[in-house]
Design goal:
Membrane topology: Multi-pass membrane protein
Family: Belongs to the binding-protein-dependent transport system permease family.
Order of helices and strands: HHHHHHHHHHHHHH
Strand content: under 5%
Low-confidence stretches: none
Distance between the termini: 35 Å
Shape: globular
Oligomer: single chain
Structural class: mainly alpha
Keywords: Cell membrane, Membrane, Transmembrane, Transmembrane helix, Transport
Protein name: Carbohydrate ABC transporter permease
Organism: Streptacidiphilus alkalitolerans
Radius of gyration: 25 Å
Mean pLDDT: 87
């Protein structure tokens, strides 16, 4: 007896349009608030206040400013400390959470994520209070470290580390949860096989778990680098709290703000902004190609 194969389900005439419909709004917003402003910034960076084309003239003037090199050295120091701290502590804490029981893991994940509910300004104000030896609940520790006043704590040489502490406190919790979720996607059969072969906890983490969440780690580094180059609120509030002891152009974003709103030179401000954009793009492309972040895994 002949049995006919079931007919394939009939596709709706709208089925092929679902994807474009879902991404259309994002595309409009990307053009309006992403690519559009970027194109305008590029135009400003290559013209003068009269709209005359100057080529790389605005970049040369920005590079020659006495504050330019210092701002980029500051942000480079901050990024180096921030990315290393984020990479090590987030991965280690996620691995530790993954080994805990369900209830303990849930409670700790909530605690890690909670500081991220504070806006950037609020988190800086909290930490200014925490770092003030005259008001901090950890004043004895600060005095032990030789910090007797807030001015001692927020010395220019300490700022990169201070900003790393603030950034980790507010932003690392979300990444710990992301890494925890990535670890949960590792097949249990792989982990069990490694344990049967005698892998220790450290070997399991180094040779199995970390390589299998490598793409997520690279993704975290890309976004953390891009966010770190945009540092503005933290140094601005610390500058205000220091009474002028901290430079108002500590970061490149502050320098661009000074060019635009104090000097009235939007063209040089745009040049600094494009420099930051190019720096982020170069690092992002390097990490993307290094990690194969967007490689499609084909089934065998």
């Amino acid at each position: 007896m002949r049995v006919d194969a079931p007919a394939p389900p009939r596709r709706s005439r709208w089925g092929g349009a679902t994807g474009p419909v879902f991404v259309s709004l994002y595309t409009v917003l990307l053009l309006a608030f992403g690519l559009g402003p970027t194109g305008y910034a590029i135009y400003l960076s290559m013209t003068n206040a009269s709209g005359q084309f100057t080529g790389l003239g605005q970049y040369v003037k920005a590079f020659g400013d006495f504050r330019f090199a210092g701002a980029f050295v500051n942000i480079g120091t901050y990024l180096a400390l921030w990315l290393v701290t984020l990479l090590v502590l987030v991965v280690v804490l996620a691995l530790m959470l993954h080994r805990l029981g369900r209830w303990a893991s849930s409670a700790l994940r909530f605690m890690f994520y909670l500081p991220g509910a504070l806006a950037g300004v609020a988190s800086v104000l909290v930490w200014l209070f925490m770092l003030d030896p005259s008001a901090s609940p950890f004043s004895s520790v600060l005095h032990l470290l030789g910090q007797d006043t807030l001015a001692d704590t927020i010395l220019p040489s300490h700022l990169a580390l201070v900003f790393v502490v603030i950034a980790f406190w507010t932003g690392a919790g979300g990444w710990i949860i992301v890494m925890y979720g990535a670890l949960n996607n590792i097949p249990l059969e792989v982990l069990d096989a490694a344990k049967v072969d005698g892998a220790s906890t450290l070997q399991l983490a180094w040779h199995i778990e970390i390589p299998m969440i490598k793409k997520w780690i690279y993704y975290m580094l890309i976004l953390a680098f891009a966010t770190g180059t945009q540092l503005f609120v933290e140094p601005q509030l610390v500058y205000a709290a220091s009474g002028g002891d901290v430079s108002p152009t500590w970061s490149p974003n502050e320098l661009a703000y000074t060019f635009a709103f104090q000097n009235g030179n939007f063209n040089q401000a745009a040049a600094v902004s494009i420099c930051l954009l190019l720096l982020s793009l170069i690092v992002a492309l390097f990490l993307v190609f290094r990690s194969g972040l967007f490689d499609v895994e084909e089934d065998a």
